[in-house]
Amino acid sequence: MLQIQASREAPPLIDDARRARLVFCLVAAGVMAAALLALAASLLQDPDSWWHIKVGQDILASRAFPTIDTYSYTFAGHPWIAKEWLGQVLLALAYDAADWSGVALLTIAMVVLTVFLMSWHLSVWLKPTLAAGLTIVLALLIDPVYIARPHIFTLPIIVVWTAYLFDAARNEQAPPLWLLPLLCLWANLHATFTFGFVIAAFAGLDLLMRIRLSNPALLAKWVAFGLLCPLVSLLNPYGVKAILATFTVAHGNEAVPYIMEWRPFNASEHGFQEMALLTVFFGLLVSRLQIGWAKALFLVFTLHIYLTHIRFIYLFFLLVPIVLAVEVAQQYPALSARKWAEEKRDGLEQFFVRRFRQVWGGIAVLLVLASAAFIATYPVAPSQKTSAKNALAFAQTRNLSANLLNSYDFGGTLIFHGIKTFIDGRTDQLFLNGFAKADEQMGRSGGKPVLQAQLDKYAIDWALLTADDSRIPFFDELGWKRAYTDDYAVIYMRDH
C-alpha cells in the first residue's frame, strides 16, 4: 500500500528565507500579469461573457434575482435562475466602470491572485524557485479557462480550500471553520461549489487513512464539517435550487455533447496538456513516489473529471500539485523548502532579501502602471466572431425585430443588446426536451427538413448566422434572401 507518515508541522522558515519566498511568489504573479496583459483580448472571446454581464446589469438595475427566462423567445417564461449571480454582478460592475478593458483587468486580477496563492502554498514545502517556476508552467497549462466568466472568481477559492483542508488532515486537526464562509461565497459565485464537498470528502479520507478509528472525536468534527458544507451553500438567493441545478449538467443533459467545453479531452487538440499528463505519470512511475491511497484516489478523480470534460482542466493541474507537494518534499529533500531554508542564500536570493521592500513595492507599482496604461492606451473588446457588431448595426438600420434564428455563438451578444434569442449559452437549464438536439440536427447533412420545421414552428422571419454555420446552404435552397454578409456573420431574411 502506498503510504507515508507525514510531518505534523510545516518546515520552519527563517525571516530572510520567508521574505525571499514571498518575493519569488510575487515575481511569479508579476510574470503572469505581464503575459495576460499582453494577451488581454483573448480573455474576451467567449460568447457567454456577453450574457453574463447583461444578467449582472439587470440584477443591479432591478435589485431582484431572475426566476424565469426573459432573454429568449423560444423558452420565455420557463424556470431559470441566475445561480452565478454574484460573479455576474462583479463582471457587470467591471464593465460599467471601464468597459471591456475593466472586464479583462478583473479577469487578469483573479488569475494573478490564483498564481500567487498557488506558488505560496507550494513553497511551504518546495524550494521557492521550484514552486514559482512550477506554478507558472501550471498556469500556462490551464490557459483555456482564462475567460471572462464567473468561474474565474472561484480559482483562488479552490486553491485555498484544497490547501487548508489537506493541511488539516495531514496535521490531524479539525478542518478550519473559517472555510465555511468561503464556501458560501463560492456558492454565490459559480455552480462548481459542489466540488468543494467532494474535495472535503477526499481530505477526510486522507485523515482517516492516517488515524483510522483512533480518534473518534476528530472524525466527528470532520463529519460535522462535511454536513455543514451543503447547509452553508444554501445561503444564496435560490437555496437548494442552486445545488440541484448543478446536477442537471453533472449527469449530462442533451446539450452537453454539442458544447465544446463539455466535450472529453482530445489529445490531438491539446498537445501541450497531453505532454504534461504523460510527464506527470512518467515521473510518478520512475520516482516511486508514495502518496497514500486517499490522495491516489483524489488524483484519479481529478483526472477523470478533466478527461470527461475539458473545462475542468484546472482541477487536475492546480489541485494535484498542492496535494502532493508535501510527499515530494519529504521523499526528495533536495527539492524541499526545509533544505533550501537551511542553505546559504545565493546572490539572487540575497538581493531579494536585502531589497525586499523595494522589490515588493516595485512589482506593485509596475503592475498598477501597466494596468493604467492598458486601460488608457490599449482598449480591448470581443472579436466580431462573438459580437457580430457590424451585422447587428445592419439589423438595427433595417428595424429587424421579429423572431430570429441565431447561431449559438451569437446568443450572448443578442442578449446583451436586448434581442430575444432562439438559443444561447444557458443550456444548463434551458433549450432542452429535444430543442438542443434539433438545433444540432439542422446543421447536419439532410437537416433542411428540420430547419424548415423550426422556421415554421417559431414563425422566424430572419436569421443571424456565423460565417461558417453549416445551415447557410439550406437557407439559400429554401429561397431566403441573403441581406447581409461579412467575414464573421450572415443575415438572411424570409422572402415573403
Notable features of this structure?
496 residues; mainly alpha; 2 domains; four-stranded mixed β-sheet; 21 helices; 4 strands; 60% helix; transmembrane helix; membrane; Glycosyltransferase RgtA/B/C/D-like domain-containing protein; transmembrane
Secondary-structure map:
Blueprint: H1 15-38, H2 48-62, H3 85-122, H4 128-141, H5 155-170, H6 179-189, H7 194-211, H8 216-233, H9 240-250, H10 271-287, H11 293-308, H12 313-331, H13 337-342, H14 347-354, H15 356-377, H16 384-387, H17 389-397, E1 404-406, H18 411-416, H19 435-442, H20 448-457, E2 462-466, H21 472-477, E3 481-485, E4 489-493
Parallel strand pairs: 1-2
Antiparallel strand pairs: 2-4, 3-4
Transmembrane segments: 21-44, 100-117, 148-166, 178-205, 217-235, 276-306, 312-329, 359-381
Keywords: Membrane, Transmembrane, Transmembrane helix
Protein name: Glycosyltransferase RgtA/B/C/D-like domain-containing protein
